[in-house]
Fold:
Amino acid sequence: MSLGSVISASRNAAGMSVEKLAEETSIRPGLLREMEKDNFLNCGGETYARGHLRNIATKLKVDPDVFLSLYVEEQSVAERKIQDLLTETNVMRPPKEKSNISWKTLASISLSCIVIAGVAQVIISNSKTSTPVASKSIASPTPSISTPTSSASPTPSATIASTMTGAITVSLQAKGGKSWIFANDSTGHTLFSGQIFDGESREIASDSPISIRIGNAGAIELTVNGKKLGQIGAVGQVANVTYDKNS
Structure:
């Protein structure tokens, strides 16, 4: 599914018309219709388009990363530095521009260094003429090296394994197409957000009920708690399901 069709399907799944979504997001209805047709030329550039997508995703209760990843995949034709992408998605702060240092500043720094060096030389000369203090009586402590014990924090692999154990397990396998998936538990914690491409699979586990939104239900086969459920919808259909330990 293209980004425009995903936006349209998410809007319909939320039971919201174009006019209602325009009222909620303050985006013109005409521009929303163009975006649902994969036309982002009138958004005012990539920065404004990404802002519109975040706004729309929030109102439709969809993870903004789903829309943004599809936008980068389909609409961003120019090659961009990874630093620019991270800055634009608020992952990192924009780097500060390096200021040019004038020759006057360099001269002042050099002069300061010369003055400091001269003062230090005078202090060292005076210290050599003073009566030395017996310092042999002061023994420098021997640094102790502690050996790490076996009670250290678990390795990354052990941590990953522990997060996959739970009373409820859902396995998703893409067959015949790709789909975006958004899954969270009963507390609202995001368990997975992203795309599953044809031939790939993803397993989600939790101790509390798992709610899943599937962007292309006809391309995903589900297995819940060891029970194979198969496809839960048609191709292009957005499906919302929830599973618990009794499913």
Summary: The chain is about 40% helix and 20% strand.
